[in-house]
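Q: I'm writing up a methods section and want to include an example of the input and output format. Could you take the sequence below and give the corresponding predicted structure tokens, formatted cleanly so I can copy it straight into the document?
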Amino acid sequence: MHKDVLEFIDSPDIRAFHRKTVFTPAQGAILVMRSGKKTVDEKIEILEYLMNTYGEEEFNDGSVVCNYVCDTDISFYENMKDTVQIWKDLLCDRFEDKGYLYAANLMERDIFPEREPYRYFSSYEKAYEYLMKEKNSYLMSEYLKDIPTVGLILGIKLDTENQWDHDEYWFDSDMNLIELLGRNERYQICKNKTVQPIFSYAFHLELPFHVGDIVKAESFQRPPLWGVIYYEWEKPEKPEFCTMNMWLDVYDDKRETYDFVDDEEILTLTFAKEEEIPEEERYKLKMLSKARKGELDFYELLLNRGIP
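A: Here is the clean output for your methods example:
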């Protein structure tokens, strides 16, 4: 396995935990495709290296499973190969002006998805130029330069039956192209062959976290999320139940109540540093952590609602 595959694990804590782990080619490909910090070009480069280095049988060794409704006629290797080709087509087609309209929007990450109105352009280049102009206006401002942003360009194919279907080009706060999503017809290779989305595939990845640990979940598309691990991460008995998403206890400061999220991607999780946790959540999460560890009665926690 290529040593750089490990660098595609977004979480430094999980990356350090697996520094000696030997992943299969299929597992390595999933780690690469799920990265929210590496660029699309970096992902394509490593995936093509893996495909050129390992054979189809080595990818289809059963070390990953499809936990959604999948087309059983498509192997993981074939699905990965088609996904890479779709990404390359998206990169090439963005410079196609005829029959396309482009919409661009630069959003402040911490208020996303409250999007500002899109600006429309006749070409991808003009849409990207607009995003860079907007980003530079942030960087030139003493008050705005440190605000994280999310950039999005939509490639809208004209005169189609589904007017809401489009290609998406996502940029992080450094204006790196991180994620590509194609319109539906790109994934329909033929009548009986549909490319499955990346999140359809998973494998059990051991984690360094335990019940009661306070963690931080990061994404380039939204503000950091702070939560508490409330169950031990164990390998499911049935492979089809394997997932790479976790439930977390959280505190909703706006509603002043405890809550949970059920779909946080595990590769985004890191151990939370106390000084980083927002002050309005810090005490509540520490109390919740104690309750999950059995150091505090849950009745007491809920009765006082975490109020010191």
